[in-house]
Amino acid sequence: MERSPNHLETKNRRPVRPRALVGQTLVWLGIAAVLFWTLFPIYWLVTISLKTRVQIFSMPPLFLFAPTVENYQRVIAEVNFDRYFVNSLIIAGASTIIVLFASLLSAYAFSRMRFAGRKLAYFLVLAIRTLPPVAAIPPIFLLYMNLSLKDTPLGMVLLYSAFFVSFAVLMMKSFFDEVPVEIDEAAMVDGCSRARILWSIVLPVVAPGTAATAIFAFISAWNEFFFALVFTASNAKTAPVALASFVGESGVDWGIMTAGSTIVMLPSLLLIWIIQKHLVKGLAVGAVK
Amino acid sequence: MDAQGSVNVASAPASRRHWIYQRLSPYLFLLPVTVVLVGILLGPTIFAGFVSFATYDMFGGTMKYAGLQNYSKIAADPEFFQSLGNTLVYTLLTVGVEFLFGLGIALLLNRELPGMGVIRALVIAPWILSDVIAGLDWRMMLQDNYGVVNYLLGVLWAPAGSTPWLSAPGWAMVSVVLADVWHNTPFVALLLLAGLQAIPQEPFEAARIDGASSWRTFRHVTVPLLSPAIFAVVLFRTMFAFREFTVPWTITSGGPSNSTELLSIYLYKQMLTFFNFGTASAVSVVMLALTILATLAFLRGLFREL
């Protein structure tokens, strides 16, 4: 971290008091404890994925061992994990596109336009978000059976678009609200249509926020388990469902589960690193859930 | 802040078509969201209310009016009340512990230290993982015989090394709560941290000049100013804990002897194990009603604020 010269100067003038030193040490001990608690389970997951079958069950557990990539080879060769991975990519990618399209349009309308029913519509978007989607499962199940949407990527894309669109509306609206209305007004005077203003004038300004929203929508769909478990069987099975099946009723294979989990968590961790700046905004509207 | 501009372009010649377009365009802009939300969430949720008064024949594909039969069925099922109780215990425990831990972590991280950006990014990691990975990871670590948690506990204090995390009913609830706390505390911590950083410095300076102790400053300055963030965090976590499925399902599948079966797992079993759509819909309605009751105050406040 950078310190201004001024800051350094004031710091040097004051001698470090022993009480402050104790406090400082306690703070760092606390941070170390928190980091151990958050990171150890992830570290352990990755190390198990690098162990042989015998090493996984060794007691006491091995902290030092010669790593093997055997589980990663098996996860692709033995259980078709690449297929489930691609399913997840297609489903999460397509739902992200729909979520972005729908939320950009409505967030722009909520941020910029005055119309009858505006308050009520905005309230409904927020209120629907508080309903548990679980409650809609039995009728969706019947609907999907009748429309043959069960176990299809299209069915999953429609579900995820509905679940993750409301947080995206809230998030995009907050980005639009930061752009001065004068930009729109100037373009309107020049005779631009609303759609054109959104696409070629406002959108470029909110591009970073749009990217962050897209990443949140993608991670949400990428991580989702419950609905994928209910609505997919083989054809549209997603990676999270596959992970759970590796330690299901048909047998417990920690090696394959941990290797698959490591592969699945890498994209999310990388993507979130990219949008660190907008992380809190996403949290505040309840993204990734 | 709201930047709604009513843009009146007085100079433009208002042809009739133009006027209609102007009037309609907000609704056109809202159309895709409406279709997706109403078609896939709101519509089916309301339909669940109807199905809860019917019996559905899976093979004939026919529905028959059945009055309150589904409700009396779940009212007579001790497993339903067990899962309702489990859900309340789970919600109270996870939200309570996550709030306390999260607040502690937020206070700890609310200072200028070298590397704080990286530390915050590392703290959020558990929340970014899929809940299915969080659940499976803890299930692996909590194995009674060869799990790393029992090993580490055994090193510290030998008798703790044989804790029956997943095989004894009480401990199983502790295990699923533990995994949920690990997975979701970062969310609470980072939102509260953002709330802390949004508080202006002046009240703290005033408290210092008045000679207030750090506890009194925390109690009478920090907590009241942080309360909007606290409210939002607790509301979010309560809503999501109440409908949680994945964490207990991947760790215990609701067992042993239904001790970790939450309402969502009960609903899942009614539907996919017994193919009982009427009963499952009745459970849906109960979950909806409880959620709306719990969030009523929030929704009213929200509506007034708009």
SSE inventory with pairings:
The complex is a heterodimer of chains A (289) and B (306).
Chain A: H1 5-13, H2 18-49, H3 53-56, H4 70-77, H5 81-112, H6 118-130, H7 137-146, H8 153-177, H9 181-189, H10 194-205, H11 207-223, H12 226-231, H13 239-246, E1 247-248, E2 251-252, H14 254-274, H15 279-284
Antiparallel strand pairs in A: 1-2
Helix pairs in contact in A: 2-14, 4-14, 5-8, 5-11, 6-8, 8-11, 9-10, 11-14, 13-14
Chain B: H1 16-51, E1 54-57, E2 62-65, H2 69-75, H3 78-109, H4 116-123, H5 125-128, H6 131-141, H7 148-156, H8 169-198, H9 202-209, H10 214-242, H11 246-252, H12 263-272, H13 277-305
Antiparallel strand pairs in B: 1-2
Helix pairs in contact in B: 1-13, 2-13, 3-8, 3-10, 6-8, 6-11, 8-10, 8-11, 12-13
Descriptive notes:
The complex is a heterodimer of chains A (about 290) and B (about 300). Chain A is an all-alpha fold and about 290 residues long. Helix content of chain A is about 75%, strand content about 0%. In chain A, strands 1-2 form a two-stranded antiparallel ribbon. By secondary structure, chain B is mainly alpha-helical. Chain B contains 13 helices and 2 strands, in the order H-E-E-H-H-H-H-H-H-H-H-H-H-H-H. Chain B has a two-stranded antiparallel sheet. The model of chain B is unreliable at about 1-10 (pLDDT under 50). Classes of the chains: A mainly alpha (about 290), B mainly alpha (about 300).
The count of helical stretches of chain A stands at: 15
Helical amount among residues of chain A, as a percent range?
over 70%
Hey, which two chains have the biggest interface? A-B, 109 and 105 residues
Structural class per helix/strand content of chain B?
Answer: mainly alpha
Total strands of chain A:
2
Gross geometry of chain A: globular
